[in-house]
Amino acid sequence: MYTEFFIDTHNEQEIIDLTDQVEDIVNKAGKKDGIVHIYVPHATAGIILNESADPNIKTDFLKALEKIVPKHGGYLHDRIDGNGAAHIKSSIVGSSITLPLKDGNLVIGRWQSIMFCEFDGPRRNRKIIVQII
Ligand code: ZN
């Protein structure tokens, strides 16, 4: 079963919790067992699993990534559209995650959340694809 939904981002860099939306899709699908693949088809965004309860983790994560990949790093791609750092961060973070589906429920750690990472916002209509296999 293939589903997609869209979100708008509001900052240049931002981490947005998608766990509720994904669980809603999984619950409505009515499937019992399998795997849930969540995929972000964007070259300047990504998706991670981590804690959302403490919002400081989102800030810390973006800050740590900024140290590894500074915005003004002299990237060749900056000559095209000025977002070389966003492309590199997207590749480091990755574009998909896969979770088990067991007895109709998404199997996810108590302190894990599914979170969209914006690295070149704000943007409208960032797409998230959820496929249950
Ligand atoms: Zn670019």
Automatic annotation (TrEMBL):
Indicate the family of this protein: Belongs to the UPF0047 family.
Q: Which NCBIfam families match?
A: TIGR00149_YjbQ
Recorded protein name is Secondary thiamine-phosphate synthase enzyme
The record's section on InterPro entries has:
UPF0047_YjbQ-like, YjbQ-like_sf
